[in-house]
């Protein structure tokens, strides 16, 4: 575990406005639905089991 840098925000809220304007891209999966999927994918890739 590494300490955060002083400029690291405590809460992140990505702004996809630029991606939408320049690329016509918008997220297809809501954050609340996507985070568990991402966690599961990372665990599989790293071979780490979920703690009970």
Automatic annotation (TrEMBL):
Which Gene3D superfamilies does the record match to this protein? UDP-galactose 4-epimerase, domain 1
This protein's cofactor list reads: NAD(+)
Record SUPFAM superfamilies: NAD(P)-binding Rossmann-fold domains (SSF51735)
Instruction: Pull one GO CC term from this UniProt entry.
Output: cytoplasm
The molecular function terms in GO held by this entry are: NAD+ binding; UDP-glucuronate decarboxylase activity
Q: Name one GO biological process term.
A: D-xylose metabolic process
Which PANTHER family does the UniProt entry name for this protein? UDP-GLUCURONIC ACID DECARBOXYLASE 3-RELATED, UDP-GLUCURONIC ACID DECARBOXYLASE-RELATED
Q: What name goes with this protein?
A: UDP-glucuronate decarboxylase
């Amino acid at each position: 575990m590494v300490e955060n840098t002083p400029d690291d925000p405590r809460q992140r809220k990505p702004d996809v406005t630029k991606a939408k304007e320049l690329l016509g891209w918008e997220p297809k999966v809501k954050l609340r639905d996507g985070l568990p999927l991402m966690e599961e994918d990372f665990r599989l890739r790293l071979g780490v089991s979920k703690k009970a």
